[in-house]
Design a protein that fits this description.
The complex is a heterodimer of chains A (123) and B (417). With 123 residues, chain A is an alpha+beta fold. Chain A is built from 2 helices and 10 strands; from the N terminus they run E-E-E-H-E-E-E-E-H-E-E-E. In chain A, strand 2 and strand 3 form a beta hairpin. Chain B starts with a strand and ends with a strand. Classes of the chains: A alpha+beta (123), B alpha/beta (417).
Chain lengths: 123, 417
């Protein structure tokens, strides 16, 4: 069975419109991409979309009440809400440095949740 | 009165970048005035990724992008006064600011760079009819409450305006457990980046209502619901098209305006379209030694270009500090067909630098020809695809192009079949 899908590449602000041909659940052709990342994106997107996740976790002893965090790799879009539930359980204490891991290997994906900024200790 | 070589008003993405560049050009005695308790500006609440692709060839979150510039500023010993709000700028470059330690202080400088950012249009700016309950926020305000203060502002949300902040907040609120029942856009096309349409709305099956607007707000203390109407091609609501949504929160993502009060009061000539100052190729405003850049000059869609523009404004200020201003006449850049604005607005005839002009198309076009011309002379013609008003465009006008030009330069976009 051949299926055609139209996708918008989310790698950069260009937002290329991609056309993907899928045969028996496998991508056989990608057109419309301007760079190799577009092709790579289309291959994953057509089968199992992957996303970077950003959120916040509670922080104590810092200038703000929450610390922004980001996944250091992509996680499946279908697992976003499960991942959010894991992130909600976390409490951290200042000081925190940008890049510090706040949650290892989220949902066994091999991806870590890391601090996306430094927050000094304030008393 | 303390006198500086340069004062930068604003310690966000534009201000930090300008400060770093000034230091690198040997302008040592500078001061950055920042009203918030930490530098970084609006980036600190933009926790999503996608920043820095042009600048650092990486996808960074807003805070991580800001941190790179904060570090660069620290390495160069940039003096930043925090919690310091500038309340007045005069044409002779006196800057009055207030903070809780020093009180009311006036300082002066040979050059002042406005890096003041922008503010959000609110409910009052678009005159939505109805009661005045709580639960109506600008998107950026809700973003700050959520991402910096840790408060989810509502459970059932409608978003008016398809600007990027609105789209980003649709996803963020959804992930936080709220239900976003829809996003409405007055125009027949989206105002956000295509990738945000995809990853913020489509990923979570959030409906987008194009050519729709909110026409009534209900609720006594807290918002209880909104009325949504379709609009005609003149953007007037169509009677009988009303739909009702029970929501406790309405987010407005209906445009940003350069924070222009200081410039306006100083008597700087303003552009009625961008609502920021008019600047020349050095980013100098109509007042000698006062420069402007970033979202305080015109609203950008990518922070990367804010940083870039602030560098250029700082370079312009550095040239002014060493060489003074150009006494040559100026060529005006005019908006041709389908172009809503250009920045800069003027280029000196003796400009030695090439000038990259930022501009926006006034309507979407699938294929277009971009032309830069002066009278009968065609300076440049370039092909463009998938033109959107929400995506800023750029074109270079070289110092060589300016030779023997007589009259204004017109930048136009013509749609091709």
């Amino acid at each position: 069975m051949t299926e055609n899908k139209e996708l918008i590449c989310i790698n950069c602000p260009m937002g290329c419109r991609l056309n993907v041909t899928i045969e028996d659940g496998r991508v056989t052709e990608v057109t419309g991409n301007t760079c190799p990342r577009g092709r790579e994106y289309a291959l994953k997107e057509a089968v199992d979309p992957m996303r970077i996740l950003t959120s916040t976790v509670r922080i104590e002893g810092a200038v703000h009440r929450v610390l922004p965090v980001i996944s250091d790799g992509e996680i499946p879009l279908r697992q976003m809400f499960e991942a959010m539930a894991e992130i909600k359980k976390i409490d951290v204490r200042a000081p925190i440095k940008e890049g510090d891991i706040v949650l290892h290997d989220i949902l066994g994906s091999g991806v870590n949740i890391i601090a996306s900024r430094t927050m000094d200790r304030v008393d | 009165m303390r006198h500086y070589q340069a004062i930068i008003i604003g310690g966000g993405s534009a201000g930090l970048s300008a400060a770093v560049t000034l230091k690198d050009r040997g302008i040592e005695d500078i001061l950055v005035l920042e009203k918030d308790r930490e530098p970084g500006g609006i980036l600190e609440q933009c926790i999503h990724n996608g920043f820095g692709l042009q600048r650092f060839k990486e996808q960074l979150s807003g805070p991580a992008y800001a941190e790179r510039y904060i570090k660069m500023a620290e390495e160069r010993n940039v003096k930043i006064k925090l919690n310091s709000m500038v309340i007045k700028l005069t044409p002779d470059r006196k800057v009055e600011y207030v903070n809780s330690e020093e009180g009311d202080v006036t300082v002066s400088a040979d050059a002042v760079i406005l890096a003041v950012g922008c503010y959000e249009r609110s409910r009052g700016a678009i005159n939505i009819y109805g009661t005045r309950p709580s639960g109506v926020y600008t998107a950026g305000q809700a973003q700050k409450y959520l991402n910096m203060n840790g408060y989810v502002v509502g459970r059932k949300v409608f978003i008016l305006g398809s600007g990027d902040i609105g789209l980003i907040m649709a996803r963020r609120m959804t992930l936080e457990g709220a239900t976003v029942v829809g996003v409405a856009e007055l125009m027949p096309y989206s105002n956000g980046l295509p990738r945000n349409m995809k990853q913020c709305l489509e990923d979570f099956n959030i409906p987008l209502y194009l050519s729709h607007t909110v026409t009534n707000i209900f609720g006594k203390d807290r918002l209880e619901g909104i009325e949504l109407s379709e609009v005609d091609d003149k953007r007037n609501p169509i009677k009988g098209s009303e739909k009702y949504f029970d929501v406790d929160t309405l987010l407005l993502s209906v445009g940003l305006i350069p924070e222009n009060h200081l410039a306006d009061e100083a008597g700087i000539e303003m552009d009625p379209v961008t609502r920021g100052p008019k600047v020349d190729e050095n980013y100098m405003t109509s007042i000698d030694g006062i420069f402007a850049c970033g979202n305080g000059l015109h609203v950008h869609d990518l922070v990367d270009f804010v940083s870039l523009q602030a560098e250029r404004a700082a370079e312009g200020a550095a040239r002014y500090l060493s060489d003074g201003k150009s006494e040559a006449g100026v060529i005006t850049l005019r908006n041709g067909s389908n172009v809503s604005y250009t920045v800069p607005k003027y280029i000196h005839k003796d400009a030695k630098i090439n000038t990259e002009v930022f501009f926006r198309a006034s309507r979407p076009m699938d294929k277009a020809s971009l032309t830069v011309s002066c009278g009968d002379r065609l300076i440049r013609k370039l092909a463009r695809r998938k033109v959107m008003p929400s995506e800023m465009d750029r074109v270079m006008i070289t110092a060589k192009d300016l030779k023997d030009l007589d009259g204004d330069i017109v930048i136009s976009m013509e749609e091709n079949a």
